[in-house]
Amino acid sequence: MDTFAVLDVLAFLHVNGVFPGKQGVSLRIVVPLVVPSIYAPWNMLPWSRKRHPFAMPSRKYFIGIDFGTTNSLAAWGLLSPKGRSITPQVVRFALDETGASMESMGSSIYFEEGRRQAIVGRRARRLGRRCLSRFVPYPKKLLGTQETFAVDGTPYKPSDLVAMVLRRLRLQLQKDLNARITGAILTTPASFGYARRKDLINAASLAGLAMDEHALLDEPVAALLSYIHMEKRRRISQRILDPGRGVNLMILDCGGGTTDATIARLEDTQIGSLSQNVHLLSISRFEALGGQDFDREICFLLQDTVERMSRVETDRLDPEEKECLEAELLYQSEQLKLDFSSLEMDAEAEGIQAHPHTLQTLFIRHPSLQKPVRVKLSYGDFLNAIQGLLDPSKDRSIHRPVQTALERGKLRPKDLHHLLIVGGMSKLWTLRKSLEKALGLPALQVLHPTQSVVKGAVFQHFAEISDLSRAPHVPQISGEAIRLRLRGGSTETIVPEGVKLPYETVLRGRLCTARNGQKQLTISLCAGDRIEYEANQHLGTGILDFGMGLEAEHPIGLRAVMRSDRMIVVEAFLENNPEVRTVMTAGLGLMAPEEVEQRKEEIFPSRKTRR
Ligand SMILES: Nc1ncnc2c1ncn2[C@@H]1O[C@H](COP(=O)(O)OP(=O)(O)OP(=O)(O)O)[C@@H](O)[C@H]1O
Ligand SMILES: [Mg+2]
């Protein structure tokens, strides 16, 4: 047997779990070290391609899509001629007026009057701020909600709107590659719950991308994949392999709408190995904080200045006009943030700090202002405006998700070896410095702040299509709290948010006792932690049948498990006779009911529900 054959056998054993991870939640990722085995000499023979487990179709594009709140990116990769690696390429989008191209596309939508097709991208953002009733600035934020956007008498659901953005990305990919694109890996914030993931998958199907839940990849995990591939490549070229040395990484994704903190432990499982084990130690969601919140803080400052200079009291404007002026000010605030960010960048390049008295001037023109208003703001004003969002002691601060992720992983800042910050906001020097100071760790400047997520998705598509990795792509940490409700109204959290899966809760008879002759127990499950039970995502209602009448006051125990595949199993048993038990299962929205039923049989082959 030659070397390639040995590598293939090892890879096969690994992906089938013969070399499992040692601890914690393990996400096994097979990196391109396996690639040479795909191109083993026998693969060159036409007949062997079909038989070989890792055979690749010819000229297969690996596609990644990062659908963001503000900006979306698409990237593709092909195997290199030697078949050793893939190098993802980011698709560029033409800018209308200047003819220049950009790596990202705006995610906003504008329905221009008299035009059949909506405008998607940065142009939509520019036009939309003047006509809010035809403008959807952040379609991603609508996912998982019941909100519809009606324009010209047509109601659009969140997935319809998101589909417009995804379709434009797909069409640009098709144009660039001159190939039909029907599948991709689509990234989502780690903080996304099941309802949003489900809506996103629907949107992808509407956009012509056939997807299931495995096509979704958490944004920070995607950034992590980019990091691993880069590290691997470096190590291969240097022929340095560190056996058994693990590192803890904090990945912070500071985007436009959300900030996600993830802590992962990276370990080499075998020397010169085919795989690398990644244990997700914790994630922390923070939906309420992103670049837009920085813009909003600057906007308050801008509003004060504009009111003072133009003598227009915004509160006295009619609501529509006021909203429109605010949209303009918010737009200008973001531009101001970008200008001060470039100022910081230039200062950093020169090895100095930006001077607080440096001024930026902008002209604000708007129909509600009698004449254009010239506003001058200093860098010091800007820092004051955003100070609260960078204060570790504040609840609404960029530090909060970091602190929560550390707490959940039972780690201290000094347990972290590396800090990686990605997302558009990571370009802001002040933000980076604030995080570095709090963690006592310099941020590694190795990843592209905005491309690493989409490139990670390309790597994942490669692993998926080439069948090199059967690693689960769903998060192995609960994204949302799971609650159980009994008929009668008592509600209990069975899986808290952000815990490692599988997770088990046992509720002894305190929750319910039988009524005389009672045979069944009705249980509902929901995902989410909104106070009002009905406001959460309903996962299912099950009737647990004991198959016999129970005595009055008989205490009933409940055991609930959420598995790594996000299937929930609830078992009710009699406290003094645990042999009398009954089981219900629920999947988390993305799992078809038949599949849930099928898996139930897998889990409980010998302990069938008593009838
Ligand atoms: N050079 C820069 N300096 C400071 N902020 C920037 C810079 N470039 C972009 N941003 C900000 O980053 C944010 C967008 O980041 P990014 O593109 O990562 O978000 P997104 O992917 O659209 O959002 P999310 O990941 O939350 O869905 C915006 O608020 C934007 O103003
Ligand atoms: Mg993003």
Entry keywords:
single chain, binds magnesium ion, 14 helices, 3 domains, six-stranded mixed sheet, binds adenosine-5'-triphosphate, alpha+beta, 611 residues, disordered N terminus, Substrate Binding Domain Of DNAk, Chain A, domain 1, Nucleotidyltransferase, domain 5, disordered C terminus, globular, Actin, Chain A, domain 4
- CATH C-level class of the largest domain is Alpha Beta
Number of structural domains: 3
CATH topology of the largest domain: Nucleotidyltransferase, domain 5
Which kinds of small molecule does this entry bind, naming each only once?
A: adenosine-5'-triphosphate, magnesium ion
Strand content: 25-35%
Outline the biggest β-sheet. 6 strands, mixed
Notes on the structure:
- The protein is of the alpha+beta class.
- It has 3 domains: 1-241 and 446-473, Nucleotidyltransferase, domain 5; 292-389, ATPase, substrate binding domain, subdomain 4 (Actin, Chain A, domain 4, Alpha-Beta Complex); 482-603, Substrate Binding Domain Of DNAk, Chain A, domain 1 (Sandwich).
- The strands form 8 sheets. A 6-stranded mixed sheet has the order 1-17-16-15-20-21. Strands 2, 3, 4, 7, 13 and 14 form a 6-stranded mixed sheet that branches. Strands 23-22-25-26 form a 4-stranded antiparallel sheet, with no helix packed on it.
- Magnesium ion binds next to loops.
